[in-house]
Amino acid sequence: MPVQGHLNSMLNLSHLFCLAEFDVTFIISDFSHRRLLQHTTVAATFARYPGFQFLAFPDGLPEDHPRSGHRAMEFMSSVNNVTVPLFKEMMIQENFLASATRRPVTCFVADGKSMDELIESIPGMEGFIRRRDLPSFYRVDDLNDPVLKDIVAVTMLIKRARVAIFNTCEDLEGQIVAEVRKHVPRVFSIGPIHEQVKYRLTEKKAESSIITASLWAEDRSCIDWLDAQPSKSVIYVSFGSLALVTTEQVLEVLHGLLDSSQRFLWVMRPDSITAGNDGEDPVLVELKELVKGKGLLVAWAPQEKVLNHPAVGGFMTHSGWNSTLESIAAGVPMVCWPYFGDQTTNSRFVSEVWRIGLDIKDTCDRKIIEKAIRDLMEVRKDEFMESSANLAKLVKNTVSKGGLSYDNLDGLTQYIKSLVI
């Protein structure tokens, strides 16, 4: 899926394949490709690997379509109706993508949503997964709901795969990975992929840079601001690349932050507030005035760098999987306010399974937000910091030499090499 969160992990996986000296063709939408070239160093990073190429297709939507919030499902439907047929047409061409300088295609790695099916079927999860923790598209009254049917159909495709690759690790979700192995012949959990890339680049003494798949321009002035703040004193706030918030929700979050008396760095995408207008949103203008001297408001930030900054002591997040993994690897505890999809389940794992944060889903009240932030940053700070540090150590060890994710990546690359005839 050509959206921010999916691009992050798939580009990092492509980077790992390039380090294994594979030829890689990355299928992407025209829209996302243009944004990547505009806002990232992806082109320069992959220029080091002659076997890598982008192949762009239209996603079927006009340039000004938001591709986010409640209209995200329109985007997915358009990709299915426009992009997929074009891709299938290319696939049936004889020797597609092969050339004098490129090897024939050995395998196709598809982006999926298989985490969603597992939520209600895994033994032992009944004690902490509630109905509200399931993705919203499962909480429908009609079994013929078209979105539910589409999600189930996509999820069931995993049973047809020779291999399933998961951006997770046994230390985080060993029971889930074991359950998947009952349905798929080979499962490789190689995550956190972004940490795997960093370790492999260091191991190979490679000069290539870490990939940031940002579709927006990053405001790096926030790093200078963080440099001036005390250790573990800042709560970082970001609701990701797809979430939309109402004016009322923005104000509740703002007052919760202000009333908590904590320093904060808040990422607020210009297109993230509903009922905006052609000029600068008046809510954003008000926010900038109220925030002065108490925090910093930016349109987009280099998130991984922010989370690993010594001044950051907490993360108020929408609980997207990339954000969750990045926070875990950085040892930063979380306040979770999920938006949709797997985020509602990820947030429950953060609070009830890994115990590295608090889940405040289904509420947007300034008093609840204030209390959650105070608990995270003051009242229960030592407890959360210790559990987060321990989990960070586990996930860094698993991608290091001798770790299970490290070995699984080697097993995956060897399996792909065995497919060559």
What does this structure look like?
The protein is α/β, with parallel strands linked by helices. The chain folds into two domains: 4-211, Rossmann fold (3-Layer(aba) Sandwich); 229-395, Glycogen Phosphorylase B (Rossmann fold), CATH 3.40.50. It contains 17 helices and ten strands. It has helices at residues 4-19, 30-39, 42-46, 72-91, 115-118, 146-156, 170-180, 193-203, 221-227, 247-260, 282-291, 303-307, 321-330, 343-353, 366-379, 381-398, 404-418; strands at residues 24-29, 52-57, 163-166, 186-189, 234-238, 263-267, 295-298, 312-317, 334-336, 357-359. It has a six-stranded parallel sheet with strand order 7-6-5-8-9-10, with helices on both faces. It has a two-stranded parallel ribbon with strand order 1-2. Helix 10 links the parallel strand 5 (234-238) and strand 6 (263-267). Helix 1 (4-19) packs parallel to helix 8 (193-203) and helix 10 (247-260) packs parallel to helix 15. The longest helix has 20 residues, at 72-91.
